[in-house]
Amino acid sequence: MNTHQWEWNGGKGRDKLIIEAYTVDRGYMDKEEWKAKKKELKKAYGSEMILDELESYAASHHLPALAPSMRAAIEGLKKKK
After folding, report:
1. Nearest alpha-carbon partner for 48 in 39, 40, 57
2. Phi and psi dihedrals of 16, rounded to 5?
3. Who's near 37: CB < 8 A, 6+ residues apart?
4. CA distance 68 to 8
5. Which tens digits make up the pLDDT trace of 3-40?
6. What SS3 state is found at 69?
7. Which 3 state secondary structure label does DSSP give 22?
8. Nearest Cα to Cα of residue 58 among 73, 42, 70
9. Residue 34 belongs to domain spanning
């Protein structure tokens, strides 16, 4: 698992982006396979998901749930807006 956090000054104040990434598939792809996979992923992940949708996606793909501290931080950010 990798966790990244970025903060920047946006138009309406300070914005924060938190990303947790998990490797779910590994292997070599040639250029044509990569283009097809990239197109498939763009189609699948082209829209934003709400937190509940992300949790159901994680459960269906056997990804670990968010840590309680991370979930609390996200909920805290949602309340500030």
Report:
1. 57
2. -135, 135
3. 29
4. 24
5. 777 676 766 777 777 787 777 777 788 899 989 988 88
6. helix
7. coil
8. 70
9. 2-80
